[in-house]
Amino acid sequence: METPVLELRGIVREYKSGPTVLKVLDGTDLTLNRGELVGLVGPSGSGKSTLLHTAGLLERAEGGEVLLDGEEVLKLSDSVRTRLRREKLGFVYQFHHLLPEFNALDNVAMPLMVNGVKRKAAREKARSMLAEMGLAERATHQPGQLSGGEQQRVAISRALANDPKLVIADEPTGNLDPATTDRVFASLIKIARSEGAAVLVATHNMALTRHMDRVLTLQDGKLTTFTG
């Protein structure tokens, strides 16, 4: 059996405020396989971002295990976790966070060059990614010259440039109109499927969940299958 891309086993996340302890994740379990698209829904404040940050090695859990490609990573040093994020993970947020001083091509090429890819090869890969997103003719435009949907498709290209094993998306279309949302999400699905990445998407947009392999609800610190 193929090793899951991501496993969360019995994850506990707590926040303390004086004598009060708020348990946001309470023994949470999750498995994501290669090429799988999984939705994460739940009310505001239910802990969806906390779960994403834990899965993405941005926060440390107080208990449980996080396995990435079968390797337990919860207790690794910060420097090793940073390297794993750079090499194996891609992140897409509600706001694109593109670098305004660089054009679309160089925004996508940047993480490749940070990982040691030569500039020419990085820009060739970036050009190919943008073409897959339908942005070949926008490659030399600055972020400020692109529409919101175009900016988000550049951000998705950047997140996938390093061929990550796992893509984590936190409300990736939350700032877009419905028509643009459909196009951006279709682009994310297309490129994630073609690259074989596992994708975990937190969203309030229930219309998007019909495109996903599974949808999970986070409530009271536990994940359950969403039943509509």
UniProtKB/TrEMBL annotation:
UniProt cross-references to SUPFAM superfamilies, sorted A to Z: P-loop containing nucleoside triphosphate hydrolases
InterPro entries given in the database record: AAA+_ATPase (IPR003593), ABC_transporter-like_ATP-bd (IPR003439), ABC_transporter-like_CS (IPR017871), ABC_transpr_LolD-like (IPR015854), MacB-like_ATP-bd (IPR017911), P-loop_NTPase (IPR027417)
An MF annotation (GO) of this entry: ATP binding
Alphabetic keyword roster: ATP-binding, Lipoprotein, Nucleotide-binding, Transport
ABC transporter domain boundaries: 6-227
Family matches, as PROSITE patterns: ABC_TRANSPORTER_1, ABC_TRANSPORTER_2
Pfam families documented for this protein: ABC_tran
Similarity section: Belongs to the ABC transporter superfamily.
PANTHER family associated with the record: IMPORT ATP-BINDING PROTEIN, LIPOPROTEIN-RELEASING SYSTEM ATP-BINDING PROTEIN LOLD
Protein name: Lipoprotein-releasing system ATP-binding protein LolD 2
Lineage of the organism: Bacteria, Pseudomonadati, Pseudomonadota, Alphaproteobacteria, Hyphomonadales
Gene: lolD2
